[in-house]
Amino acid sequence: MDFKKTNAPASTVTRDMGKLDVTGNVYESVAIIAKRSNQVAAEMKQELNRKLEEFSSYTDTLEEVFENKEQIEISRYYEKLPKASLIATQEFLEGKLFYRKPGELAK
To answer: Which residues of 82-104 are buried (b: 16+ CB within 10 A; e: fewer)?
Structure first.
């Protein structure tokens, strides 16, 4: 998933609940968004950990901690990305999410 190229807002947005009623039930729509949000957050965390592992060393001294500016820049970049819930909501509103109810055909 390329969440860096998403057009989700970077800050909190007040939403019209009528627009989230794509499934016919607002609570079902919110549950779908929540599940996708958890997936996006897990993907982001794995990617961040992979990138930070490149800089990890087991013999950190005080001087090395201050000199590791690349690690700090990577962390700041991920902090500035939109939250996982905003990315999931944007995907849902754009129709990019695949979801189905157990026992029904896929939508």
So the answer is: bbbbbbbbbbbbeeebebeeeee
Q: Which residue has the tokens 């897990």?
A: 42
Of 24, 29, 15, the residue nearest 86 (C-alpha): 15
Structure tokens belonging to residue 87? 């990315």
Note the pLDDT tens digit of each residue in 69-102: 778 888 888 888 888 888 998 888 888 888 877 7
**Three state DSSP letters for the chain:** CCHHHCCCCCCCCCCCCCCCCCCCCHHHHHHHHHHHHHHHHHHHHHHHHHHHHCCCCCCCCHHHHHHCHHHHHHHHHHHHCCCHHHHHHHHHHCCCCCCCCCCCCCC
d(CA 73, CA 40): 21
Cα–Cα distance, 97 to 32 (Å, whole number): 9
